[in-house]
Design a protein that fits this description.
The protein contains eight helices and eleven strands. By secondary structure, it is of the alpha/beta class. The strands form two sheets. Strands 5-1-2-6-7-8-9-10-11 form a nine-stranded mixed β-sheet. It has a two-stranded antiparallel sheet with strand order 3-4. Strand 3 and strand 4 (48-51) form a beta hairpin. It is globular and about 50 Å long. The chain binds iron/sulfur cluster. Iron/sulfur cluster (SF4) is lined by residues 30, 32-34, 51-52, 54, 58, 95-97, 126, 149, 153.
Length: 252
């Protein structure tokens, strides 16, 4: 069963391909909760749910009633066609965690259809779920934005950092880069050491650090300290353009 939370045509707001026109598919469900990010959202059943800035795409128990089930390839293709897009425009698969569907036949068929039409696919993933590049060669054509979770997510180390998976994704994908969400309060020696350990797993992979925040105000507060951190460590700073412009994660 594939759950789709939303789809929209916008520009990529984060990471290596920032500014690129992209069709986004946000899938429902995730293998983590990341309650450490401290974002809350009221679900349709009235419950205030704690999690990350896309908690509405993570928490199945309280938000699944707002998700749409996709059962056929034609449903996916109809969505793409409905936008009348420029040829070969980028497609971004995000969530939640899109790789929870990595072995789903329908999901793989959708990827193959996109690649056949010349679309570049980028997965926005937490980098903790594996992909079988030999069985599903279409993944070798894809880009992986590895948003490996740090201790500020409050997830356990063994769950959020899976060395063999990070190495597999970084070395077999068409392109891969690290993308970290960092808040000003977390910038310290522990963070430096944690990043160093993760980055040493795939040393030639580019690094982008972006300010934590589901709202413009929060992003702004975290921006300048993070820029100073990036300057000191030689990492790339990534803005979160969509939040700075639209003050929202949804539908933009
Ligand atoms: S892994 Fe990503 S989508 Fe899943 S809960 Fe954490 S921040 Fe949210």
């Amino acid at each position: 069963m594939i759950y789709l939370v939303e789809h929209f045509y916008s520009i990529q707001g984060e990471g290596k391909y920032v500014g690129t026109p992209s069709l986004f598919f946000r899938f429902g469900g995730c293998n983590m909760k990341c309650e450490g990010f401290g974002c809350t959202e009221r679900a349709p059943d009235g419950v205030e749910v704690l999690g990350c800035d896309t908690v509405y795409a993570v928490n199945k128990e309280h938000f699944a009633s707002t998700w749409k089930q996709i059962n056929t390839l034609q449903e996916f293709l109809d969505i793409v066609d409905s936008y009348e897009l420029p040829k070969g425009v980028d497609v971004v698969l995000t969530g939640g965690e899109p790789l929870i569907y990595a072995n789903d036949t329908l999901f793989v068929e959708f990827l193959e259809a996109l690649v056949k039409e010349g679309h570049r696919i980028t997965f926005e993933t937490n980098g903790s779920l594996n992909v079988d590049f030999e069985k599903y060669s279409v993944y070798k054509e894809c880009v992986f934005a590895l948003s490996v979770k740090l201790s500020n997510s409050a997830e356990s180390l063994s769950k959020r950092v899976r060395p063999e998976i990070i190495q597999n994704l970084a070395s077999n994908a068409y392109d891969a880069f690290f993308k970290f969400s960092i808040d000003a309060a977390s910038i310290n020696k522990d963070l430096e050491e944690e990043l160093h350990k993760i980055l040493s797993l795939a040393p030639y992979t580019k690094v982008y650090c972006m300010p934590v925040g589901g709202e413009k105000k929060e992003v702004e507060l975290n921006t300048e300290p993070l820029i100073e951190f990036c300057k000191a460590k030689g990492y790339n700073f990534s803005d979160r353009l969509h939040i700075r412009i639209w003050d929202s994660n949804k539908g933009v």
